[in-house]
Write a structure and sequence with these properties.
Belongs to the complex I 24 kDa subunit family. It is built from 11 helices and 5 strands, in the order H-H-H-H-E-H-H-E-E-E-E-H-H-H-H-H. The protein has helices at residues 5-15, 27-38, 43-53, 57-64, 86-90, 93-104, 146-157, 173-180, 198-209, 233-241, 257-265, and strands at 78-83, 110-111, 117-122, 134-136, 139-141.
């Protein structure tokens, strides 16, 4: 498919966020931009990103196939992910996945016949304290069971947007991709924030109840710096040791010391 002038303008806006010699850093948000229009990253989307950044389609494809958030096949409005990793699995994650798979008639990374829901299992959703969990477009539904999971997908199929246990009201995968590309979401209910929940804080509460703390630790102690401008020494060392590679030449292309020595010997 061809991309609109509006999409090209947004792409140029994304690229302008980065220094001229670091323009390749714009690739990740550009892929989200493509996905916000297509619903996935198609070959045409890969070509568009390569054209905008002046790199090869192979370079774009290598990134697009590495990250699972970029979908290479047409995807439904709702990406339903069920955690089947160790903690959630012990708590019933596999049973939830199996029930939904049978109910929806699809397996991992497949989309329902009506095109509305894409289903997948996830290795970890980073919410072990709320397990078993599932997400819809990366928003959490905590402590689910097979019946509540089916109820959520029934609501999605009926055109509703069920409220996640935590976080913002649901948006479609295309709407979410606009946010991930770095553009503001116009819906008032799109963003949400709040304190950590009781399961997350359980370890801290137990430590407080039993008087457990790190000996001599004061969280208010400032990090000392060996530099005069106040930057932490560790940060200064990290920046010096991890200078970004220039887009002008891929990292690792410089001759190795032993190669140079051989050439000089000749």
């Amino acid at each position: 498919m061809g991309f609109s002038d509006a999409t090209r303008e947004k792409a140029l806006e994304i690229i302008a966020r980065y220094p001229a010699d670091r323009s390749r850093s714009a690739l990740l948000p550009l892929l989200h931009l493509v996905q916000s229009e297509e619903g996935n990253v198609s070959p045409a989307g890969v070509e568009f990103c390569a054209e905008m950044l002046g790199i090869t389609k192979a370079q774009v494809g290598a990134v697009a196939t590495f990250y699972t958030m970029y979908k290479r096949r047409p995807t439904g409005d709702w990406l339903v992910s069920v955690c089947t990793n160790t903690m959630c699995n012990v708590l019933g994650g596999q049973e939830i996945y199996d029930r939904l798979s049978e109910y929806l008639g699809v397996g991992h990374d497949e989309t329902t016949a009506d095109g509305s829901i894409t289903f997948e299992h996830a290795e970890c959703l980073a919410a072990c304290d709320y397990g078993p969990v599932m997400t819809v477009n990366y928003e959490f539904f905590d402590k689910v069971d097979p019946d509540t999971a089916v109820h959520v997908v029934d609501q999605l199929r009926a055109g509703q947007r069920p409220q996640p246990t935590r976080g913002a009201r649901l948006c479609t995968l295309k709407e979410l991709s606009v946010q991930l590309a770095g553009f503001a979401e116009p819906r008032e209910e799109a963003m949400a924030d709040g304190p950590a929940g009781a399961p997350t804080l359980r370890g801290v509460r137990l430590a407080q109840e039993h008087g457990i703390s790190v000996p001599g630790f004061d969280p208010e102690t400032p990090i000392k710096s060996s530099r005069g401008d106040g930057a932490p020494a560790a940060q200064a060392a990290g920046v010096a040791a991890n200078k970004p590679a220039s887009d002008l030449k891929p990292a690792g292309d410089t001759a190795k010391p032993q190669d140079r020595a051989l050439k000089e010997a000749k």
